[in-house]
Amino acid sequence: MATRKDTRLRFEQWVKNPTCEANVISAVAGVRMDKVAISEGIKPTFGQSPFAITRGNSFERALLDKQADSLIEALCRKDALPSGASGLADYRIRMNGGSLKSLEVALVKTRELLEAAAATGAEGLYGELPAVVASATMEIPGQPVMLPDGLLVIDALLLRPAEDGKLVELVIGEIKTYPYRGGYTDSAQLATARGQAGVYRHALKLFISELGLSDRLVISPFGVIVLSLSGQNQPVILPNEDLRFQDKRAERGFVRLRDAAAGVTPFDPADEEKGIEKVLAADTEYKPACISFCDRAAGCRLAAFKAGDAVVLGEDVKRLLGDVTIDRAVELLGGAAPSGPRETELAARLTEGAAA
Amino acid sequence: MKSRDVAERLRAYAEGRPLPSGATITVPIAEPEDRIVLSFVRMGGESLPWGIGYQLGEDPPVLLSAPDGRQRDPVGDMCAELSKVLCGFLGSPLLTGEAVDPDNPPPLPLRQIWVPNRSHIEMIHLLNLRYSRTQYGDPARSLILRALGRASGFLFRESEREGQATVIDASAVLRDHFVFPADDMRQQHLGFLLAMMNTDGSFDERMQAAEAAEEFSVSHTLTPELERDELSPLVEAFNKAEGDGGAEVQAAASAAVGEIIDAENRRRIDLVNESIALLMKDARQENKGAAELAEDSIRERDCYYRWQETTGALDGDVLPHLTTSALTDGVPASASKRYYRMLAASDKASVCLLHDDPELQKVAVAEGDAIKGTLAAVSRAPSLKSDSDTEVEVWRVEASASLPSRIREGAKLCLAGSPDHDCIVTEVAVDGETRVLSIEPDKKLAGSLQVEADVLLLPASVAFFGIKKGKEAKNSDGPGAWLTHAQPGRPRRRGLNGPDVLERVEELRGS
User: How distant, in Å, are the alpha carbons of A163, A217, A237, B257, B321 from that of B496?
Assistant: First the structure.
């Protein structure tokens, strides 16, 4: 079974609806939801635009071209790297326009680089160490947090002298293709980018701790988001993005995810059919946000609708109605006698303002 | 979402159809010749249009596309075409060559740009970002593109001003005027909303039609399947033929791409036209306050777009002397002024529609911004507004205390239907279940009400304060001018990861 190796994507999938059992199994076991949808006779709709993929690759290529000169220059201008910083270590795999054969090779190279950075300290930045590492690859160590694997790839890892001037500080860089629009840049997209960078920061902490390098490398609490200039391949740098909260979120998320994984009856992750069966057999819990990422959302919505679940009228309606069904709420709104304190309060809230 | 909104959504669900929200149409709809319906389609990952569709009034739609949305020149040519139409439509003489006195331009009625949803307004901002200062390519074309950049900038900024009537997001207008029995995410889709509105039959039949409509994108992006299965092979064939010199293959691929993109834009334009038609045939009257908002929109356009373009044209300048930043306002004084104007617009938009709409009035009362009661007594007392001993009429208004109220002493209210005459609240008290307000009405209202008359007091607009403060912010002599008129200094660069300053001093001492 070709399980999805992109742990970050699976983590984000889980975060979007952690209360849906089917989503949890899909995320922790790497069972692709589009394949589950196909097995149900649903046509998947969440493929990525081929043009968007090409655009992402070409933006990344432009940034990393000529030893990432344009990217490093932009980072220096924003003080994300010290002036004069230079050098690129490109750990991209062939599929992504790099030269490495596999993620495993990238993992070995990243490990070696971090060990070298720990050994040389900040002095190495003026010689053997690069300023930017493209596609630094990490493995989440210890007891598997994610099943069946835990690989994470950072878009751009920046190396710079730490505050004491002796150690190397690592800065998470997240590259996004969408254009920078000042204060109008989509806040949800920026929040997602920060969330992703926070996951990387937390994973990097774990990875470095596993390598025994925690006291010889510093991880910056701040990250860098790289966006594009509208209609161009020029980078726009958003430095000093505070990742501490997102790191905590990832830490809590990984713990909860591990708990969720523990609750899943074990099965062979290489057995695709078994995985699909498991997801199909699991309970679902529809949320409007599912429409944005899950191919099975329409079916779940229909089921929620049939059950009278208020979530089909929106999260706010659900928040107010709780477990009361839509039909019952309509009855209360029409003047039906409430039964119990919960319904009494709800009826009062629904008729609030009617006196005006 | 408030409890009241939840109740409305439940009612719509119970009825099995969208229900009208509000008693009036709060958006002025310009005459057909003063409306452009505008739609964009972009290639995945790109930030400029791949195709543009526009329809001026009742003319047939004009559909433009580039064979490959990544190519700067074909996309630039297409945007230049749009520029000529859009700038002229908004009253810029720059491309028409008319001689216009900037201080006395010929009057132009409200002109509106209708778009299917918010994503198309974002595309307008991207045009602003990309083209406002472009120097790329043929100078004649770059001049036209810069004009598009500035027009787009004005339109985008205006779209952010509350109560504006120049850039209309059709799906937002439908959501403002109807309550749909669906979650907020689905209500972003114009096709979904229209199918819910226009399908006859049961709730299930409406929902089925709406679900079918949802299959098609209405935003500026295309569905990944369409891009992957149909457009990608065509674009690939077009680009491959360019290298191979296959002009015929290229022409065929280009035509096929154009057909798909044009159909996408045509569908979006049709949906917007359907929305306009739906609002126009609505039995509800246009709110009288909407005309006032339309006047403000005309003023904003003439002041912040036409005047600037006209003076630029008179100077024969390639770049009119003011090209506003697409991201922010770097001049503190004008940023302050704009901020206050935005506040004023927001205040005006929230109160000027109230007087003509009983439903909005009900909401204002329920939320505690307005008060509905009875005139219990009329007396005379010295005015609290001035220091003189002149006696003025004072109203004692009694209302139910069961509803929340945000009205405090000193608040300015006005009688429903008399927005120009302010009443000052001089005292607020609660007596058992009754809220008692002492009110000093505008002297023109004195004697206008009989005791025991029903009274509805609405919040008075304080927009003029914002306008006044905006003007003060521009004053280079006023208090605070040192903040707004100082030359902004270059931001200090943070010493990156260097040693602590004190440590560095010690180091230097040591050396």
Answer: 8, 17, 16, 50, 38
